[in-house]
Amino acid sequence: MSVGSQPPQTNRIADEVVVITHEDVDRAHDRVRVSAARAQRGFFSGARLLWLLVGPGVLVMLGENDGPSMLSYAATGAKFGIGFFIPFVALTFCMAIVVQEMTVRLGAATHRGHAELIFDRFGPFWGWFSMIDLAIGNFLTLITEFIAIRAGLGFFGVPPWMAILIALVILYAALMSHRYWTWERITLAAAAFNLVFIPVALMTHPNWHDVGRAFVTWQPLPGFNKDTLLIVLADIGATVTPWMLFFQQSATVDKGLTTKDIRFGRIDTVLGAALATAAAVATILATAPLFAHQMTADNFQAAEFAQALQPIIGRFGASLFALGMVEAGIVASITISTSSAYAFGEVTHKPHSLNLPMGQGKSFYSVLTLCAVAAAAIVLIPGLPLVYVVLLVNVVAVLAMPPALVFLFMLVNDKEIMGDLVSPLWANVLSSGVVFLLTAAGVLFGISVIAPNIFAVLGGK
Amino acid sequence: MERKDEARFPDSSSKSDQASGDQSWVLSSLEHDQLVRAKKHFIPRRHLKGPELAVLWGLRIYLLFMMAVVIYQVWTAAR
Lengths: 461, 79
Known about the structure:
The complex is a heterodimer. Helices cover 74% and strands 2% of the residues of chain A. Chain A is an all-alpha fold.
């Protein structure tokens, strides 16, 4: 049932007046379908329930396979070939599962977003800090996503302004439904194109024996020098970025997941991580022939990887690779700008939901649109120091991650809001280890960005 | 904080009877704290104990350090 733009309704439960809004009705509609699927037994009902409940986890993981990440995987394949980094990438996604699972539990148990919980439980200073830091980091990251889109579509001869316009139209089209469910399905459909790197990898005819050996033995190891260490630190530090925490928790709340759905929220997260790992490993495999052909990839950009691969996999394969880069940028720009809008609404206590009609969610949609349009416009500025923007993204992410992870850990162990859903001891040991590793790697990488010679003691380049 | 869009229906109107069916349908489908109305209530501030306060102070010091690093980075890049 949809109520369109009809005014909110009221009811009384006990002594409290309850105001029913458009957002409530849309969310209730989604919950009815979930309840109906849950009430039935059998394989198809279970599959339908999974279909209804997946979304935030898949989106966050495939969203993290964004333009810069795919470029990083491509550079890794071209620089190191098939070996250590293939199982290593899979390990980083396992760490991401540990962290993101906490956001599912928090969202389902409290029905509040991450920024809102930090604001309420730890005070305005940390609430505003989290929101502003997230907004700055997201904005800079959005710029890099539009760079990837521009570069990817540039492979097909699309001029930069048109590439940016296409991306904005897709972003806006997803929003136009004013319905979380529809937005989620459109974005999931776009995110599925992340798997386009798999056929590209198959076209390069990888040596599956080497791939299997890499997964089992983590061999061959890359030479241990400064460059390798920095790539390892950057990959670990980038496993979970601040927007992922804020996005998945807010999307879990907006989707209306409850404590009964946590198991499916976990499946959603693991499924997303598995798909993202497949796409990431496929990208490494796709560019590994460049390593085998001794082609240097130090200065490659997104479109240049596609051009470099064209002699090996043909025009069609190279086009798929370029399209993959475009998809990575588009999906990440949708999810990242949405996470900014969620956080803004949560901290300012303004309406924040993809179920809101435009008239009721002016601030939410304005923040979302403004972030995307401003970042897109910046990419079109001639002579912009893009390398410096990417560097700043890393530094700001490092600044934001430790507080975000520490608050996540404290909140998920907060018995007052979590009740029996606080983490058990074994989960705390695991998650605290992962949080410590992610934080340490991120900080070390941040320091290396600022002081590039800090690891010169290792005797590398 | 009240939202402007939340106009209320008079309880005695016929419109209210029809709306009442919709309301109960929505209320039975959602958990009480999932309603937009419920989310307007702030969750009480957490009472922090010794170790938690120490962690937050650690974070503050970390932020000051990293802010200085970022400002230095921007300054050197601008030069």
